Amino acid sequence: MQETSGRTPNPLRAMEWRRATMLVTVVAAIEFVLLAAAGVALLGNPLAGHFKAEAAAAAAPRLRSTHPRLQQKAALARSETSVIVLNGGGRSGAAAAAAEQVRARGYLVGSVGNAAATTPNTLVMYRPGFAAEGARLARDLHVRVVSPLDGMRPAQLLGAHLVLLLG
Asked: What confidence tier does 28 reach under pLDDT thresholds 50, 70, 90?
């Protein structure tokens, strides 16, 4: 059984409270909308300029980056430059044949083997500081792509300066 405090609820009084609560809620919502509009009006213009500049930069055509200028003169002679030849194209014997071409040009061949993954293009990769030697080997063998080591660490070269990766 419930205990009563001796008062009986007044339905009219409850309705007044509901109306008052609803009125206060509506007034608060209107104030919130007005404050939000004032905030957008005061702060929106600086942000709009920022977003417009960012959108313009994103929409601008991208310029092709040119390859960085490689070191012009090789520090090592061909006979002092060690090259690893890797077959990344899957043709049997391609690395051995390319190693013979490298030797014929006067380079040292460090090792010959298969690459861990296949590649569509033949490229010359160089260790840090040996960009000119890489460019020279690429010129000698008519290879178009020369890049720093990608996917290999210098320690994996076992002292070699360049990698000829056949595609």
From this structure: very high
Q: Say whether pTM exceeds 0.70.
A: no
> CA geometry: angle at 138 spanning 99 and 91, to 5°?
45
Backbone angles phi, psi at 147, to 5 degrees: -150, 160
What is the tens place of the pLDDT at every residue in 42-77?
A: 776 666 666 677 777 777 776 665 555 555 687 888
- Exposed (0-12), middle (13-18) or buried (19+): which is 5, by Cβ within 10 Å? exposed
Phi, psi of 113 (to 5 degrees): -170, -170
Phi, psi of 82 (to 5 degrees): -95, 135
How far apart (Å, rounded) are the C-alpha atoms in residues 102 and 161? Answer: 13
Query: HSE on the CB side for 2, CA within 13 Å?
Result: 3
| Structure-derived torsion over alpha carbons of residues 38, 42, 46, 51, reported in degrees to the nearest 10 | 10
| CA distance to 6, 15, 37, 65, per residue, from 9 (Å) | 10, 11, 42, 80
